[in-house]
Write a structure and sequence with these properties.
The complex is a heterodimer of chains A (about 130) and B (about 400).
Chain A lengths: L17 H8 L4 E5 L5 E2 L14 E5 L3 E10 L6 E8 L4 E6 L12 E8 L5 E7 L1
Antiparallel strand pairs in A: 1-2, 1-3, 4-5, 4-7, 5-6, 7-8
Chain B lengths: L6 E8 L10 H16 L8 E3 L10 H7 L6 E3 L7 H14 L5 E8 L33 H16 L3 H15 L13 H6 L2 E3 L2 E2 L9 E8 L1 H6 L5 E11 L13 H12 L8 E4 L4 H11 L7 H5 L18 H5 L7 H13 L13 E9 L5 E10 L1
Parallel strand pairs in B: 2-3, 2-4, 9-10
Antiparallel strand pairs in B: 1-7, 1-8, 4-7, 5-6, 8-11, 10-11
Helix pairs in contact in B: 5-9, 8-9
The chains are: A mainly beta (about 130), B alpha/beta (about 400).
The complex binds zinc ion (ZN).
């Protein structure tokens, strides 16, 4: 278990993404789904990156997923685990693995979302072993 | 229309410096331009096209053309796809020459990250006031150059059983070549054990899996056939070129391949040759994993078999089947301005000319490939491939 946690910087928001960050503050992970082609994507866009339809809507993700890949940055003042997690909804997002033993992480490992506070009072979707 | 045989490499130059505390960035661009013009036997006023990327100060080519006194430009291009830019520039120069837009195209690269004390690989970088659309969803998680490539390596290991020892062979081969390069930053021959015992930077990449950080630069001059004929240099013809970008696919992330999966087959098709015909390959080596994945994607071995392919010295000139980066590459010699594409072109040209160091010169090297990756294997990158033939 990491003794100290890395300070997380705030993200800049835009009219396109402010709903995502507002939901994160309330502990909800949103992903964009396209009503044109039915696919879920991330990071969120207004126009679907698969079919270019503008009929994209926010949906609440289950918060469950598996680690696609990860790398533990040892050369940082406080080491941290960068990861890609593939969500149950099918899309893969960049994240950090937190509250866990970095030496026991594995590709394919089941994980669940947990929100960590950022600078400026926001929250960031991170993951921990399920 | 094809670029095959429509243009030649007329001149090259690699700056000998690896630490440029006493030079300005613009000065290095001008010094490498002068070096390449002298190598070609051309003068500044012969240059009618100029190519540079984001490493050049100012907006596109304007400031550098002004600084160097390039007054005859009819064509320019500042395509910036990171370290792969300069391989892509060679292809673009061929297109412009083939279209009759210009006859003498100058490409320059320079950088001084060492002099500036830049933490190149281990600190996340933000674009500040004008963030890319991905940045809010990535930057807070601390993506750096090393941990992003680390994720690509980790996935490759997971899917194909690739090992740290196999990756280490790539560095070992580079070090065997670098011992003969008097300008190389690291000239000691290393072993697989040295690499896997070097400190872990970001799993699974050790310090010796990472390229060097150096100041310096280089230049390439691409010329029309009638100019090439008039020069007193060996003729190096460009017979294939391709470029692409690869990205996260809207979240359908697949870190097991690179843009070379397109640029390899496309450039081979244009050149009318196949991977087994290639005598020498310059392969972008920001990290050992970069080399391994590009070799697979370019078609030198099957996907997933890169680990076996690079093992046991197979990339070492004189003993291996595919001599690579015989100048020591980015892993040992030079990665000027954190952009390694231009030096990839330079060593491929030296090999085709027969002007590499005698200890690493590939016999009868009539066909060579240079490939660049710019950006990150872990998210989005540009890829460029060129194929060179001796005439
Ligand atoms: Zn769609």
């Amino acid at each position: 278990m990491a003794e100290k946690e890395r300070k997380l910087p705030a993200s800049s928001t835009s009219p396109e993404t402010e709903e995502y960050w507002a939901a994160a503050k309330e502990g909800k992970l949103l992903v964009k789904k396209c009503n044109g082609c039915g696919k879920t994507h991330h990071y969120p866009r207004s126009l679907c990156p698969y079919c270019f339809s503008d009929k994209t809507v926010w949906t609440t993700a289950s918060g469950k997923g598996v680690i696609y890949s990860y790398s533990v940055m040892r050369r940082a003042p406080i080491p941290y685990a960068l990861a890609y997690v593939t969500l149950a909804e099918g899309t893969t997002m960049m994240t950090n693995m937190v509250d866990c033993d970095f030496d026991k992480l594995k590709c394919g490992q089941p994980v669940k979302v947990v929100f960590k506070p950022t600078d400026g009072g926001g929250a960031l979707a991170c993951f921990t072993p399920a | 229309m094809s670029i095959k045989g429509k243009a030649y490499i007329g001149g090259i130059f690699e700056h000998p410096t690896r630490l440029a505390t006493d030079k300005s960035l613009a000065m290095i661009h001008a010094e490498v331009a002068k070096g390449a013009l002298e190598d070609a036997g051309l003068s500044k006023d012969d240059v009618d096209a100029y190519f540079c990327a984001g490493d050049a100060p100012g907006l596109g080519p304007m400031s550098m053309a002004d600084y160097m006194g390039l007054t005859k430009l009819k064509h320019f291009d500042s395509t910036d796809v990171g370290g792969s830019s300069y391989v892509v520039h060679v292809g673009h120069a061929c297109e412009a020459i083939a279209a009759g837009k210009c006859k003498v195209a100058l490409i320059t690269l320079a950088g001084r990250p060492r002099a500036e004390g830049m933490a190149t690989g281990t600190v996340p970088r933000s674009r500040g006031g004008s963030p890319t659309p991905d940045e809010p969803f990535e930057f807070p998680y601390g993506p750096t150059v090393v941990n992003m490539y680390g994720m690509a390596a980790m996935r490759h290991m997971h899917e194909f059983g690739t090992t740290s020892e196999q990756l280490a062979w790539i560095k070992v081969a580079a070090s065997h070549h670098a011992q003969y390069n008097e300008h190389a930053l690291l000239r000691d021959v290393v072993t697989v054990q040295d690499v896997v015992n070097s400190p872990m930077i970001s799993d699974p990449l050790h310090r010796m899996d990472c390229c060097v950080i150096t100041d310096g630069g280089g230049a390439v001059i691409v010329v029309a056939p009638e100019i090439a004929k008039s020069l007193k240099r060996p003729k190096v013809k460009i017979i294939g070129a391709a470029e692409t970008t690869k990205n996260q696919m809207g979240g359908a992330v697949d870190l097991t391949y690179t843009g070379a999966r397109y640029t390899g087959p496309a450039s081979f098709a244009e050149a009318g040759v196949k991977p087994s015909d290639i005598k020498y390959a310059s392969i972008y080596d920001s990290f050992t994993i970069t080399v391994l994945m590009q070799l697979e994607d370019l078609g030198f071995c099957e996907k997933g078999k890169g680990g076996a392919f690079v093992s046991d010295g197979n990339l070492i000139s004189g003993t291996g089947k595919l001599p690579f980066n015989t100048d020591g590459g980015g892993l040992c010699s030079n990665h000027p301005g954190n952009r390694g594409g231009l030096t990839k072109v330079l060593e491929a040209v030296r090999q085709v000319r027969g002007e590499a160091h005698p200890k690493v010169q590939v016999k009868n090297c009539d066909l060579a490939l240079a490939h660049g990756t710019g950006g990150s294997l872990g998210s989005r990158h540009g890829s460029g491939t060129i194929i060179l033939e001796r005439e």
